[in-house]
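TA notes, week 10

Several of you asked for a full example with nothing omitted. So below is the full record: structure tokens for the whole chain, then the designed sequence directly under it. When grading your own attempts, check the secondary structure regions first.
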């Protein structure tokens, strides 16, 4: 089902195409360098997400060996328990103590077994969250590149200050620049979604949702600037 799952290769190709478009229009801009980093990140994260979606066979074998050894140990210890004198006088108190110790041992054994079984999930979660943290940083870097691209500052009558950034882009170029930033944020959100697709883990899914919400909110802010440019051009034409 090609349209029911995200294809990491297609996401990577989209990022590469976007980088070429930015390079052709803004060859000496730092936005191009960010786009190149996004391409590299799309390849690394795509491969990482695919790897995390596969079982860790070596870890499962180790867990199976430990579980088997624990079962053999309990079976071996159980052969030394004698219940021949359970009803003998004076043995009731000892039996209760032994039963309590057996229950505690079973509880702790169950906790240890669950810890071993969930070890694979926790290892994958830690690795996914580390990669998602790097992706979140890139999203903030993209936002920093559009931060000073304010279309309102180019309006007639607004005098720049000594600390104002240089305004070298025409309204059309500024619109394309902002649109590229929005596209990069969208690609970053799709890279995050690869982890939610690969891992059925509530913590990872929540982190992915946070990243997608962050990218969407920043993209919405960018499109507000694009709408201002369109409105100003329409007013000039009128």
């Amino acid at each position: 089902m090609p349209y029911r799952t995200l294809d990491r290769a297609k996401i990577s190709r989209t990022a590469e195409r976007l980088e070429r478009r930015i390079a052709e229009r803004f060859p000496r801009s730092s936005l191009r360098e960010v786009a190149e980093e996004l391409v590299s990140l799309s390849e690394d994260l795509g491969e990482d997400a695919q790897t995390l979606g596969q079982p860790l066979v070596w870890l499962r074998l180790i867990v199976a060996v430990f579980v088997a050894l624990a079962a053999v140990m309990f079976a071996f210890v159980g052969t030394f328990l004698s219940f021949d004198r359970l009803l003998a006088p004076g043995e009731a108190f000892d039996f209760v103590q032994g039963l309590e110790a057996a229950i505690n041992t079973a509880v702790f054994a169950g906790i240890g077994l669950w810890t071993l079984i969930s070890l694979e999930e926790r290892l994958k979660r830690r690795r996914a969250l580390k990669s998602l943290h790097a992706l979140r940083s890139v999203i903030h870097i993209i936002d920093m590149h559009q931060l000073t691209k304010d279309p309102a500052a180019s309006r007639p009558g607004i005098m720049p200050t000594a600390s104002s950034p240089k305004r070298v882009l025409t309204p059309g170029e500024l619109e394309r620049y902002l649109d590229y930033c929005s596209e990069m944020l969208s690609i970053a959100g799709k890279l995050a979604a690869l982890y939610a697709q690969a891992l059925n883990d509530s913590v990872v899914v929540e982190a992915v949702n946070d990243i997608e919400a962050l990218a969407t909110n920043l993209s919405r802010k960018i499109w507000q600037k694009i709408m201002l440019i369109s409105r100003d051009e329409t007013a000039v034409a009128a």
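The mean pLDDT is 80. Use that as a sanity check on your answer.
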